[in-house]
Amino acid sequence: MKWLPLLFLAAAFTAPAQTPANTPRRSASSKTPPSSSASPGKWPIVSLSVEGNHHYTREQVLALTGLKAGQLAGKQEFDAARDRLLASGFFDMVDYQFEPAANQNGEAGVFRVTESDPTYPVHFEALPVPSAELEALLHNKDPMFSAASVPPTKPVLDRYTAWIQDFLASKGSSEKVVARVDAIGTNNQLAIVFRPARNLPVVALVTFLGNQAVPENVLRDFIGGVAVGVPYTEDHFRELLDTGVRPVYEARGRMRVKFTTIRTEPATGVQGLHVFVTVEEGDSYQLAKFAIAGPCPIRPEQLIKTADVPVNQVANFDRISDGMEKMRKALVRGGYLNAQVTNERSIDDAKKTVDVAVHVDSGPLFVMGKLTIAGLDLDGEAEMRRIFSIKEGRPFNPDYPDQFLKGVHAEGLFDNLGATKADTKINDRDHSVDVTLTFSGAGPQTKQGQGRGGRGPF
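RE: above sequence
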């Protein structure tokens, strides 16, 4: 058996470390495949496999090694394959092993890899060719490329930047390109952004044209907070319109609003761009249906009532979003702590109506686990256990422990009661929640007449 380990830790944006020399461990001669007389120390490859890969397929990794079944290979060829994997920038650690193939004349090789982490999606900004063309370029150049997941290591970014610049030059552009990890969009998602090396102009002022349903000052308020002072690219600015201004129209039932044209000019009196947005507001749509589609652990009519979303009126998606959040909180109070509520729209342009189908992903039901009470005497603890209404095994409401303690204070059940605290421990394995209630004060005691037979706070 030949075992050739190598450890290579590649930090993002740093030059690769020098590869240390390796001395192979030689296995017993009885396990060494017969060497070709024409190529001593080399044997035919019978099989190749990969271990430790998650983002990338076996075929992608083996394509980078340059090795193929049937070729003669020994230490020199496997060292070179390992070095190619490390030089790619996609792996932090690579080692390999090859040994005689079972019942065959040749060797079986295994590459063990640790993929570079973290990885980020790829975003192209303000470059003079469409993003789709740049994605296609990187796909064709590198079989490891995925627009959804790329490690920001120096070899990868240097290689991709050079390819993009060469491609732009072939299109007649002299634009220089830089790549860096940056936050994009209104949700500040991290991405590897390829953009011009020059500084981009920033947005100084935004003017809307063609708007009637929504006043200019309202639109400016919504776009100003996210766009003014931000480097301008049309793609990014359209993202801000979709996430910041479109909801303003959808709250008024304008389901087909369009931002038809965007033009810029230098702003007067300040440094930056004046951006002009032409709006096509479209017609107002009514909400024809708001209903739960699919399974739901709580009676659908009860949740719909909780949402309080009126139908046969203007489709106000602010109110729809608020209603869905009320539904989610109701599910959480019912013990479904991980509940998620989403919606799907069906728009009828002929009738100018929209139906909203609500999808409930309730997740597991969490129940009350162990109740621990600290700081009370035996009588006080017994009384608290008696009136704590969520018994073990029943659906757990995460709001209840704090509400319970507020009730204890409001009812004045104890003399000298100081601060109280409720702590919860969620047990994901058995979907239970343990609760600890802590009472403090100068020896809190239950008041006379409010012992075991007394009335509780709820």
